[in-house]
Amino acid sequence: MTTQNTKKLRELGRTGIKVSPIGLGVMQFSGSQGIYSMMMSDIPQEEKNQIIQAALDGGINWFDTAELYGKGRSEQSLAAGLKAAGMADEDIIVCTKWWPLFRTARSIPRTVKDRLRFLDPYKIDLFMVHNPASFSSVSDEMHAMADLVEAGKIRSVGVSNFTAQQMAMAQVTLQTRGLKLAVNQVHYSLLHRKIEHNGVLQAAKDFGVTIVCWGPLGSGILTGKYHGDPEILASSPRGKRIRMGRQIESSRPVVNELENLAKKYQATPAQIALNWLINFNGDTVVAIPGASRVKQAVESAGAMAFKLTTDDLALLDEVSRPEPQKTRTK
């Protein structure tokens, strides 16, 4: 067993911006505002401050939010929490996103003013297109983003939920402006490994783009809490029970291995799952688990305090690989 610390900072793409392997996603800070109102409960600002402080104390130096998360409420709460922690702009990295649905690239320079206002006094280190579903082309979006870099309003450009082909278009367009694509933020975890087979992960490696994982704990399934206490799901809303029921059962072999390794490393199953993510693909992948409680932020940061051995990384790779892929590799 190795106890090597993995808190060493990594570069976002080839931007020169350095982040800890684990960041903190603050979608939960949107509370009952906006599109996620049915999924989130309101967290008092004082508790948000404590969550941010716990993340900082654990070595996390970057935070991920978005316009969509409460129409600025998450951004505003993040800024308030960072100020309460006494953090200067140069001490931390802030990432946010433009929401493209039913919009064109022309709204990017108009709406960035709101992002900066809500995040004040913190600058935008990474600005992302939240998904590719706008009325504009990828090229037009990247030119609008490049304009913001040249105007000094953002430091770097990223995308989220883009295909390999869309990533390539973004990269090519940014190169005409003397820039490079920093990240593609996508769904990736031990339970959701599609980017390994649809070209996205390989494109990231080819282009020098960082993969930022959202949903790294599979909606909490990889913590093992649902397997250990079935009543948690039984008392959940019907939609959640239907959506997660089958996945909980099919994930049992993965969670069993996470629990075994957690004992070996004196860690939690969630920490083992996060450690696999940030180490299995070298420095290409970083993760942004969320937190609605201080304990969760402490736990996520703790995933950087050790490093799984090569054999343990391979073990989790094998047990979590979909069955058809397991068969092809034998």
Characterise the protein shown here:
It is globular, with a radius of gyration of 19 Å. The model has no long low-confidence stretch (mean pLDDT 91). The strands form 2 sheets. The protein has an 8-stranded parallel sheet. A two-stranded antiparallel ribbon has the order 1-2. The chain starts with 9 loop residues before the first strand and ends with a helix. It has helices at residues 45-57, 73-84, 107-119, 138-150, 164-175, 200-207, 225-228, 231-234, 238-250, 252-265, 269-280, 294-302, 310-320, 323-329; strands spanning 10-11, 18-19, 24-25, 62-64, 93-98, 126-129, 157-160, 181-187, 210-214, 285-287. By secondary structure, it is α/β, with parallel strands linked by helices.
Describe the secondary structure blueprint for this structure.
Elements: E1 10-11, E2 18-19, E3 24-25, H1 45-57, E4 62-64, H2 73-84, E5 93-98, H3 107-119, E6 126-129, H4 138-150, E7 157-160, H5 164-175, E8 181-187, H6 200-207, E9 210-214, H7 225-228, H8 231-234, H9 238-250, H10 252-265, H11 269-280, E10 285-287, H12 294-302, H13 310-320, H14 323-329
Parallel strand pairs: 3-4, 4-5, 5-6, 6-7, 7-8, 8-9, 9-10
Antiparallel strand pairs: 1-2
Helix pairs in contact: 1-2, 1-12, 2-3, 4-5, 5-6, 10-11, 10-13
